[in-house]
Design a protein that fits this description.
alpha/beta; Rossmann fold; 6-stranded parallel beta sheet; 5-stranded parallel beta sheet; 16 helices; 35% helix
Length: 452
Amino acid sequence: MYMAKKNHHDSNSSTKIFVLDTSVILYDHEAVNSFQEHDVAVPILVLEELDNFKNGNDTRNFEARNFIRLIDQASKNNLINKWFPLKKNSLGKFKVVLDEHPKKINAEKLFGDAKFDNRILNAALYLKEENPKRKVVLVSKDICLRLKAKSLNLHAEDYETGKIKNADELYTGRTEILYFDLKVMSRLENNEKINAAELAIPVINSNHFFILKNKKKSVIAFYNNSDKSIRKVNNHPVFNIIPRNAEQSFAIDALLNTDIKLVTIQGNAGTGKTLLALACALEQRKDFRQIYITRPIVPLSNKDIGFLPGDVKQKVDPYMAPIWDNLKFIREQFNDDEKMQFKIDELIRTEKIQIAPLAFIRGRTITKIYFIVDEAQNLTPHEIKTIISRAGENTKIVFTGDIYQIDTPYLDSESNGLSYLIENAKNHPLYAHITLQKGERSELANLATDLL
């Protein structure tokens, strides 16, 4: 939230004027309500751009439509080119800035008139000239637009709502500690459930994984925050996929835990995120009505998939290929078991397993579903919230992704939906998270991650 000294609104107050560009609204259609007592303006060109985004099933289409509806409902008795309150008791006001040209600095003359961005800059510059006693701030998810604004002596900021403070310190879900009580470690090894108070471990307020180790032995364990107990984590294979390190064992434990309804797995390419999620889903296939594996489509070169040749299946298959590759790899683990291979093929044929883009699954009932969302770092916080809020009874949702490999414009490691979820859900009793750091794809792949 954007806070400031609480003053009564008037043209000479210390409240600011925030000018939002299209990228902010496509990220969060409720952004206009996030600025407390400050005024919010939107250039008329933003409405034109939103009109181009209003049709479709993508997140940005949803955000565009909802913003248009929000402004339409709030402005029933008002002209939107004049300041008016969006809500009955709101301190700040809102208006749409017409295609005005500032007198002192004209962005279109400096940068050209071919781009809407330069006309949006002019709208902000016009407000700055019109309100010399107030601070005017352009808010944009577009770094280049912010730099251009600053070059014109115009304040510019990223939209901070929903953004975590430091992605490099994001919750990892695991802690390694030196532990010397061999008797307690032996009890854990014998699958005894132990009260956390006996272990004298650091205080944790979330479901959490531990590596207890010393020179003689090492035990991996899970701390259940609901009953404050610790138990051993087994490293047994799941659907013929053998965990290759403690982190993968932690991920499997969370994915198979029936008390955990929401799981996030974050990690570099090759750490096994999607493979483990899919193997655990297949292991529990009888407990769920269906298995959904999906991922958001990030258009190539920012072009819509409509430009690709072929029917719908041919258009989206390239985006779904990594998921099919993981399923094929699992199937290959049963080369000596034709019955199981046939079973996997049948699950696909009968759509017990369904692999489809996220946009194609929207609107469906998510009840008794094992729902895997791959590449979740390309989702906005609002989309993550929308997916989780639609979960019905007996559904488990798994988000996997790498917050440092984002393909969506205007998202970064701190503002994407996966980071937002990890930071905000970490203390919930239905949630568990693990960050996978060790690549297991191949030594060559590890070289790329570590050195290049």
